[in-house]
Write a structure and sequence with these properties.
single chain; alpha/beta; 9-stranded mixed β-sheet; two-stranded antiparallel sheet; 8 helices; 13 strands; globular
Length: 312
């Protein structure tokens, strides 16, 4: 069954889901256990997987408008609470702080290592997932995490080295409202407090990807304005697409949570657009269905009040 919406986009009808939290993985190297949430459809087999990385300060309970939508339409979504979460309250002088970006990547790789264990803890899920179809997704800081898993190189502020921390188990990425390149374009605040943004190299990303950017997302981290968040699209290689959300600020209408106070541009239409385009892309890139993605490309290629979709 296909559903239709005011955005003009199509999509499959939702199905019931199950969500289990917290699933706990011991992680002595990070000084705190890794807590994970899994949401999944209650029916279906060979289900593809989305690893979702939250934005700075959030946790595994965030981003319901996205992860619930993906789970209700056939994807197993996995969320972890990273060390930068407000739940940990790390002090600025905590020795782990300069490596927060790296701990996030390690968290995601640990989840991939333990997928079988995690799935066995969700009633009825064991044996129904497809570990060969994994997409990394993330918002803001989480977008960098997803990017690193497919080849983004980040110069370590401690060592000055930019290692390849990509993971061959991840086939594609979805990066939402995430950071662009560093250098002189960073504001003094970002250069001092977010050292992992000082030097990012997108040229090694060859895996397919969807980038979502708001054309009003004027972050206090770069002098370039909203165009900064399109760098993961313009500077990476391979099969890439860019969804520009018209009027969208950093939370793209409210993707970080239902009735979330941090949303400055609350708009159900923008959220619906991001939900539908990301779902269409996920179904396309994992091979489940290509029709909705082609419809989205057609509808959003011309003038549309909510957004514009382009590919390279």
């Amino acid at each position: 069954m296909t559903t239709y919406s005011a955005t003009g986009l199509t999509g499959p009808a939702p199905t019931p889901t199950v969500s289990v939290k917290p699933l706990v993985l011991p992680a002595p190297h990070r000084g705190a256990d890794l807590r994970v949430r899994i949401s999944a459809p209650v029916t279906g087999t060979r289900l593809p997987i989305v690893l979702f990385a939250h934005g700075f300060g959030s946790d595994l309970d965030g981003y319901g408008p996205l992860v619930d939508h993906w789970a209700a339409h056939g994807f197993v979504t996995v969320q972890a609470t990273h060390l930068d979460s407000k739940r940990f309250g790390l002090a600025g002088d905590d020795p782990r702080t300069p490596d927060l970006w790296r701990y996030r990547v390690q968290d995601m790789k640990r989840v991939l290592d333990e997928l079988g264990t995690l799935e066995a803890s969700v009633p009825g899920l064991a044996g129904r997932t497809d570990h060969g179809r994994v997409v990394a997704a993330g918002h803001s800081f989480g977008g960098q995490t997803a990017g690193i898993l497919v080849g983004l190189r980040v110069k370590d502020p401690r060592t000055g080295l930019a290692e390849d921390l990509s993971d061959p188990r991840v086939m594609a990425s979805v990066q939402l409202a995430t950071a662009g390149k560093g250098g002189a374009e960073l504001t003094p605040f970002a250069h001092e407090h977010l050292p992992w943004l000082r030097d990012q190299d997108f040229s090694h990303i060859t895996a397919p990807g969807l980038v979502v950017a708001g054309d009003k997302d004027d972050l206090p981290l770069s002098t370039r304005g909203p165009a900064w968040t399109t760098d993961p699209y313009t500077l990476s290689r391979g099969d890439k697409s860019l969804l520009t959300v018209r009027g969208g600020e950093h939370f793209l209408g409210g993707i970080s949570g239902y009735r979330s106070a941090e949303t400055t541009d609350e708009d159900p239409g923008r959220v619906a657009l991001v939900q539908q385009v990301t779902l269409a892309y996920l179904r396309h890139i994992t091979g489940d269905d290509h029709t909705d993605w082609e419809t989205a490309r057609s509808v959003l290629a011309a003038a549309h009040p909510l957004g514009h979709l382009e590919s390279k």
